[in-house]
Design goal:
This protein is 38% helix and 18% strand. The chain is an alpha/beta fold. The chain has a single domain, classed as Rossmann fold (3-Layer(aba) Sandwich), CATH 3.40.50.1820. It has a seven-stranded mixed β-sheet, with helices on both faces.
Length: 220
C-alpha cells in the first residue's frame, strides 16, 4: 500500500487502475495536503476478479470472464488492509472514504450493501453496466453509516461501442435513484467532461470537493 499521511482522522482508501497510478501521484499529494486527508492506495487487487460481485462473461472478444470474487476481497480489505493502514498511520476512529474507478467504482457502490466500514463512497466512471447489478440493488439495503455517496461519469461514456458498456449512463442513473430512496446518505451524481475515467484528476478533484469541501484546482 502507498500512503500519504496528514494530521487528520479522515482517510480515503483508493483502488486505482494500475495504468493511471503514476499519472496521478502528484495530484493526489496535492489533494491530500489541501483538504487535509490521508490517502491510502490499495495494492494487490486482481482487477477483473476481486472487484466484481459475481461471475460474468468478459466484455471484449477473447477477454477473460469476470471472476466475481468481490466478497473475498472486501473481507481482506476490511479485516487486514484497513487495520494495517490505520496502525501504520497511527489513526483511531477513522472517517473512511472508499474511492474506486471503473470496476473498482462498481466495487465501491457494491460495498455500500456489504459493509459498515465506510462513511463515504466515491465512484468514478463506475462500471454499473455490470450484468444484473442495478436489479440486484433493488433488494438490498445500504449501510446506515454512509453519509455521502459521490458518483461521477464521463459524458461520452454512453457512446462506447460495446453494448453492455454503452448502457452505463442509464444504469448509473438507475443506481443513483435506488441509492437516493434507499440510503440515508447524501447522494451526488454528475456527468462531467470526457470519456471512461479520462481525464481522471479533474474527477478526483471534483469528488474531493463534494465529499470533503472546496479545493483549489489541481494540475499535474
Amino acid at each position: 500500500m502507498d500512503y500519504l499521511k496528514q494530521d487528520t482522522d479522515k482517510i480515503c482508501y483508493m483502488i486505482l487502475p494500475e495504468g493511471i497510478r503514476g499519472d496521478v501521484s502528484d495530484g493526489l499529494k496535492t489533494l491530500s495536503e489541501q483538504q487535509p486527508v490521508s490517502i491510502v492506495v490499495i495494492d494487490g487487487a486482481n482487477w477483473n476478479d476481486d472487484l466484481t460481485p459475481w461471475p460474468a462473461v468478459g466484455v471484449f472478444k477473447k477477454a477473460k470472464p469476470f471472476g466475481g470474487k468481490a466478497a473475498a476481497f472486501l473481507g481482506r480489505l476490511t479485516d487486514t488492509m484497513i487495520p494495517e493502514a490505520e496502525t501504520h498511520l497511527g489513526i483511531k476512529d477513522a472517517e473512511r472514504t472508499l474511492l474506486g474507478v471503473s470496476l473498482s467504482g462498481l466495487f465501491a457502490i457494491w460495498s455500500a450493501f456489504n459493509t459498515d466500514a465506510f462513511t463515504n463512497l466515491i465512484s468514478l466512471s463506475g462500471s454499473l453496466w455490470y450484468d444484473g447489478f442495478t436489479d440486484w440493488m433493488k433488494g438490498q439495503t445500504p449501510s446506515p453509516r454512509l453519509k455521502k455517496i459521490c458518483m461521477l461519469l464521463g459524458e461520452k461514456e454512453k457512446n462506447a461501442k460495446e453494448k453492455r458498456m454503452a448502457s452505463v449512463e442509464e444504469q448509473t442513473m438507475a443506481a443513483v435513484g435506488l441509492l437516493k430512496t434507499g440510503s440515508q446518505a447524501t447522494v451526488t451524481f454528475e456527468c462531467v467532461e470526457g470519456t471512461h475515467f479520462s481525464p481522471i484528476m479533474p474527477r478526483m478533484e471534483r469528488a474531493f470537493d463534494i465529499v470533503y469541501g472546496t479545493t483549489k484546482h489541481v494540475q499535474i
